[in-house]
């Protein structure tokens, strides 16, 4: 292994300060993944990235944890951040709105050095950028170093596609992408919606209007009660 990924919440990157030096002591390249980048406005992403660079990060990944970005937003994000730091940037997308590949292309065209992808897009929640799909896009674009999309497609077909999948909660993923709500909050929102007899997706949207970063159980429950009373 030549590198390590250090995942931190973009609203508190301080834990990376401890682990980046440890990685470097082991001779590893230190990548920092800024999870939930999507909850912040573009201008608010710059300082956490700079902070990670000050800790010694060799590269910083911007992570669309809820798959909520649109391609033009990704382009703006990478243009802004790449103008302020001199380390390679990466993009880790999710496919809640069906835009993971488009967002990956936008990132690659706007300053990203690295793109995360998985065979058949397999991954948490709505899944990730598809390796074979993105390779095909790069081939279509005429990229000189595009991976062999045909071999990747065959590999995906013969391996990943036969793996049993978890329960498909697609509508949750889509609404989560729309409201920038992380999937870790789905059980809490569902539980509170059922307790008050309100629509779970209306509750998800209402909670996101108040606090999409770190909504507490008290906030979600109170919002559900308010919806029930309205």
From TrEMBL:
Gene Ontology annotations of biological process type: L-leucine biosynthetic process
Gene Ontology MF, one: 2-isopropylmalate synthase activity
PROSITE patterns the UniProt entry points to: PYR_CT
InterPro entries linked: 2-IPM_HCS-like, Aldolase_TIM, PYR_CT
Organism listed in the record: Streptomyces oceani
Glycoprotein among keywords: no
Pfam families (UniProt xref): HMGL-like
Name recorded for this polypeptide: Pyruvate carboxyltransferase domain-containing protein
Domain Pyruvate carboxyltransferase span(s) in chain numbering: 1-153
Organism ancestry: Bacteria, Bacillati, Actinomycetota, Actinomycetes, Kitasatosporales
Keyword Manganese found: yes
UniProtKB keywords: Manganese
